Amino acid sequence: PTHSRLRHFLADDDLTWSEQREVLELAAVLKADPYSRQPLAGPQSVAIIFDKPTLRTQASFTAGVAALGGYPMLVDGRLAQVGVRESVPDTARVLGRMTTAIVWRTYAQSALEEMAAHAGVPVVNALTDAYHPCQILADLLTIAEHTGGFTADGPALSGRTLAYVGDGANNMAHSYLLGGALAGLHVRIGAPEDYQPDPAVVKRAAALAAGTGGSVTVLEEATAAVTGADVVATDTWVSMGQEDEKDEREAPFRPFQVNAELLDSAEEGAVVLHCLPAYRGKEITDEVIEGPASRVWDEAENRLHAQKAILTWLVDR
Ligand code: NVA
């Protein structure tokens, strides 16, 4: 199909706040009525490529594409060796001729941007070193479900406070900043001194927050970040590709563990999110992830609904 208004989802702020809200509301519709939209009927193919490990992302994109009437074309990253055996632009042009959209998990954001520039079909970020925007859509849907729904109008989740503690420099932190600010959240990051967010991303998020009534606060302390928060989120201290840094990261990150004591400083009834995989005893305790505040399984399920929504929004235009 020809895309008269070709759009991509490479970073959280590729959507405006109203577009983000539209996608989140569509996700809720698809969750309630999973086969109600068939934008990939044919079946049309969606290429799904992984250059890094995956469980949820592969399961949710393949199941999601099938539920939308399409064919999930898994392209093995180890065989294709995108950017090694064949350049990114060449790969993009070949896949673009055979598919309706391309979903790619890789390292460099610049490679993903190059794919988008040459594919001729929508490209979706299934995680890069820089961002994980599909996860944030799932998280925002989960927050809506567990903290009082979408706001009546305006940005999706105006006024609620989300605290993320842990690695401030990783893809999740950056996507919480951008996607959270877009949703009208007050986003607080608590991260060790040497693992603070990219200042350019903080600046972009602050500019978005100025337009949505949200806010962005970056701290070097966990308790201050979590105090009064409605949502407490964390992620692994060692992201994919950083395995060599495992030992050196242990000491600086220790004070940022999400445990019962830290959770005590959050708002009464606060919910806990974690994109998984979780390392119990490291960034989160077993007690918290298995406890009453945890919404991590709903969050994981919501990947499916959120990604069906963004795919539908991108291809059905
Ligand atoms: N920050 C983590 C997220 C995993 C879904 C990583 O990049 O490994």
TrEMBL record:
Q: What class of enzyme is it?
A: transferase
**EC number(s) on record?**
2.1.3.3
Q: Which reaction does it catalyse?
A: carbamoyl phosphate + L-ornithine = L-citrulline + phosphate + H(+)
What superkingdom heads the lineage? Bacteria
What's one Pfam family here? OTCace
The entry's localization annotation reads:
Cytoplasm
Swiss-Prot/TrEMBL keywords: Cytoplasm, Transferase
State any GO BP term from the record: citrulline biosynthetic process
Chief place where the protein resides: cytoplasm
Q: Which residues bind L-ornithine?
A: N171, D235, S239, M240
Provide a Gene Ontology MF annotation, just one: ornithine carbamoyltransferase activity
Binding positions for carbamoyl phosphate per the UniProt entry: Q81, R105, H132, P133, C134, Q135, C275, L276, R303
Q: Where is the Aspartate/ornithine carbamoyltransferase carbamoyl-P binding domain?
A: 7-145
Q: Which residues form the Aspartate/ornithine carbamoyltransferase Asp/Orn-binding domain?
A: 159-314
Query: Which InterPro entries does this chain map to?
Result: Asp/Orn_carbamoyltranf_P-bd (IPR006132), Asp/Orn_carbamoylTrfase (IPR006130), Asp/Orn_carbamoylTrfase_sf (IPR036901), Asp_carbamoyltransf_Asp/Orn-bd (IPR006131), Orn/put_carbamltrans (IPR002292), OTCase_ArgI (IPR024904)
| One Gene Ontology cellular component | cytoplasm
Pathway(s) it belongs to: Amino-acid biosynthesis; L-arginine biosynthesis; L-arginine from L-ornithine and carbamoyl phosphate: step 1/3
Give the family per the record.
Belongs to the aspartate/ornithine carbamoyltransferase superfamily. OTCase family.
User: Which PANTHER family does the record associate with it?
Assistant: ORNITHINE CARBAMOYLTRANSFERASE, MITOCHONDRIAL, ORNITHINE TRANSCARBAMYLASE, MITOCHONDRIAL
This protein is called what? Ornithine carbamoyltransferase
Species the sequence originates in: Ruania alkalisoli
